[in-house]
Design brief:
The protein has 16 helices and 5 strands. It has 368 residues and is α/β, with parallel strands linked by helices.
Length: 368
C-alpha cells in the first residue's frame, strides 16, 4: 500500500512523516503554491493540516476531493481549536497530535493498513519455514523502529531469528525456505531475507560453530541496516533508479557505520559485516576501498551471499537469473571475490535453485 503524505511545505515536513517513510512506501506532495496540485486516487492519506494559508487550504481540499473516499488522518496541534475545526471541515475524522511518537503512530496505523514487513506466505508453507520468516520480518521491523527511536537493537531477537532460520533450513530445506521468501512484496525485505538464508546455509555448509552461525546470521540481518535512512519509495521503486537515487542507496554502508558504531550490543565482527560487504579483494569496492587481507573470511562469505541473492532476485526492471547463470557471473568476477569460498558456496547455490533458469534477464544486476 502506498501512502500519500501531504505537507504545506516540503522543507518543513514533520519528523514523524519522514520516519514513517522508512516503514511504508510513501509519496510526498507539497500542497502550498499558486496552482492546485492534483493527485491520483491513493489508498491512504496522512496530511499535515497545520496551515492557515487560504491558497494552501484550497489546494489541499482539491487534492482530497480527487482522492475520493481514501482513508485519511490529519496532523494538527490538538490544543488549537481552529486547527481541529479546519481538519474536520476538510473531512479528517481521525486526528493526530503533532507530538505523537513514531511508535504510537505505527500502532495506530497497523490495524488500518497492516504491517509493511509482513510476508504473504503460500498456504502450503511448512510450519518451521513460516515461523522463521515471520520472526525474521518482525525482527527487521523492530530493528528499524530501534534505529529511528535510538533504542537498543534487539540482539536477542536477532539471535533467535537466526536459530529459527537454521532449524527451518534443516527441517524443510533451503529450496523450500527460499521459495517462501521470494514472494515477499518488498524488494528490501526480500533481499534481506534471502541474504540471511544464504548466510546461515553457507555457515552450515562449512560446518561453522554456533558462534560463527550467530555472527554471520546477525551480520546478514543487519547487513543493510543503513538503508533505514533511505525512504522505501526509493528502495522499492518499481523501475530503475536514477543516478542520484543509486548514489544515495550506495551510501548505506556509511549510514550503517553511523548507526552501529559505538553500540555496545553490536560486536566488532557484526559491525565489520555491515560496513564492508561491498568491498572487493582487488580494492575496487566501497565504502573504504579495502583489499586482500583487510577483508576477513566472514565478510567474504557475506559478499558472495549478497551478490548471489541480488542476481537471483526478480525486479520490475529485470528478470531473475537462474542459479547456474548467477554462479557463472560470480566466477567471472575473478579476483574481486574469494573464488575458493565461492566453490564452497556452490552446493548452497544449487540447493536453493527452486525454479527453472529464467531467460531474458538484464546483463547486469544491482547489488546495492
Amino acid at each position: 500500500m502506498r501512502i500519500l503524505l501531504l505537507v504545506p511545505e516540503r522543507k518543513k515536513c514533520p519528523v514523524l512523516f519522514r520516519q514513517l517513510a522508512q516503514f511504508f512506501d510513501t509519496v510526498l506532495i507539497d500542497y502550498a503554491g499558486e496552482a492546485p496540485i492534483m493527485a491520483e486516487p491513493v489508498e491512504f492519506i496522512l496530511a499535515d493540516v497545520r496551515t492557515s494559508d487560504p491558497v494552501a487550504v484550497a489546494n489541499l481540499r482539491a487534492i482530497l476531493d480527487k482522492a475520493g473516499d481514501s482513508p485519511r488522518i490529519g496532523l494538527i496541534n490538538i490544543e488549537k481549536r481552529q486547527e481541529q475545526v479546519q481538519a474536520k471541515a476538510l473531512g479528517f475524522a481521525e486526528l493526530w497530535d503533532e507530538a505523537l511518537s513514531l511508535q504510537d503512530a505505527l500502532e495506530q496505523m497497523r490495524p488500518l493498513i497492516g504491517t509493511y514487513s509482513a510476508p504473504n506466505l503460500p498456504s502450503d508453507t511448512p510450519d518451521a519455514t513460516r515461523v522463521s520468516v515471520d520472526r525474521l520480518c518482525a525482527t527487521f521491523d523492530k530493528i528499524a523502529l530501534s534505529v529511528m527511536t535510538d533504542d537498543q537493537l534487539p540482539v536477542t531477537q536477532m539471535a533467535e531469528a537466526v536459530q529459527l532460520t537454521l532449524s527451518a533450513i534443516k527441517s524443510d530445506g533451503l529450496r523450500e525456505w527460499m521459495s517462501a521468501v521470494q514472494g515477499h512484496h518488498s524488494h528490501t525485505f526480500r533481499h534481506s531475507l534471502m541474504v540471511t538464508g544464504y548466510a546461515v546455509a553457507f555457515a552450515r555448509q562449512l560446518g561453522a560453530s554456533a558462534e560463527e552461525h550467530a555472527v554471520l546470521g546477525i551480520g546478514a540481518i543487519v547487513h543493510d541496516i543503513g538503508k533505514v535512512r533511505i525512504p522505501l519509495s526509493i528502495l522499492d521503486k518499481p523501475g530503475k533508479l536514477t543516478p542520484e537515487e543509486f548514489d544515495l542507496v550506495k551510501k548505506h554502508p556509511v549510514y550503517s557505520r553511523m548507526i552501529l558504531s559505538g553500540r555496545p550490543e553490536i560486536g566488532p565482527d557484526v559491525l565489520d559485516l555491515a560496513l564492508h560487504h561491498h568491498e572487493y579483494l582487488d580494492g575496487s569496492g566501497y565504502p573504504d576501498g579495502l583489499s586482500a587481507d583487510q577483508i576477513n573470511r566472514h565478510v567474504r562469505m557475506l559478499t558472495i551471499c549478497d551478490i548471489y541473492s541480488a542476481l537471483t532476485e526478480e525486479r520490475a526492471y529485470k528478470k531473475a537469473f537462474g542459479s547456474r547463470q548467477a554462479f557463472a557471473m560470480l566466477l567471472e568476477m575473478g579476483g574481486k571475490i574469494d573464488q575458493d569460498l565461492l566453490q564452497k558456496f556452490r552446493p548452497v547455490a544449487f540447493r536453493a535453485d527452486f525454479g527453472e533458469v529464467r531467460r531474458g534477464a538484464a546483463p547486469t544486476a544491482k547489488t546495492g
